[in-house]
Amino acid sequence: MPFQRKVDLELGRVLNKASMKGKTVILTTLNDAWAEPGSIFDLFLESFQIGEETKELLNNLVIISLDQKAHARCLAIHPHCYALKTEGLNFTREAPFMSEDYLKMMWRRIEFLSTVLEMGYSFVFTDADIMWLRNPFPRFYPRVDFQIACDKYYGNPKDRSNQPNGGFTYVRSNLRTILFYRFWFMSRKTYPDRHDQDVLNKIKNDRVLEKIELTMRFLDTAYFGGFCERGKDFNKVCTMHANCCYGLETKVHDLKIVLEDWKNYTSLPPNERASASPSWRAPQNCSTDHNVSYKMWTRDINPESSFHVHLASFHFPDTFKNTDGYQVSVRIV
């Protein structure tokens, strides 16, 4: 039967206003803790201002605010803001990693992104603690459904053993990704008390993904790096994520250093940049112990999940518009 969801006119208005050609938007979430002046949000926006070919991308950035204070701050300084309804949930304060509030926030995010796909919008989702230093779009793989950054990258973008990080994804809106996000969200019940990234590692080799023919690529940390595994070549790096790092003050301290290093690099004359060999001074206060960062979510991960869902159990629209604007009829047999 047709999938039914209450139409969110305000979300549709915001997405339409921010969309680039091809109905693609950039999304991030924000709560009060990260929205304070001088905190993560300000550094995030500054990175767009000083990055290479990133300033214009602010026109396509939608801030998803998780509380009233964050929404008020967004409205004061950015044109595209959407207040996500989180009834019965309080995402105002910083949620400690793997706390109950943290898990609820992560799964509310997956549910929301599923809605965006169903509305026909492709998206780049980015955590706000990711610095945008260079336009990433030229580095995305063409005609791939789902692309995701990594905490640990083993050299092959198709290798499912790469360790993904859900803080940065590029997802094309089509039936395959709609089904995938619903399956991902449903799988939280199969693997309770685990966050979205942990569950993704459980299901990334599941036969459901093969049946729906989802194409997936893992992004090279040389271009999409972080504190877990930095992109060392300043001439290549697109983003820098404060992963392998816990605590708001710690992240702010080290991300400020990232932006300082980037400003020093971009201040060089073009002929000197190509031959320069700068290095990142960050992380300093953040942990770089890769094993510690993974100990909470690599336990008991099997190559293939034992959870299988028949495709007919999914509910999805009889028709939807793909990224080319054509209406597509869908029938499961």
Automatic annotation (TrEMBL):
The Nucleotide-diphospho-sugar transferase domain sits at 57-255
Which InterPro entries did the record assign? At1g28695/At4g15970-like, Nucl-diP-sugar_transferase
Q: Which domain of life is it from?
A: Eukaryota
Name of the protein in its database record: Nucleotide-diphospho-sugar transferase domain-containing protein
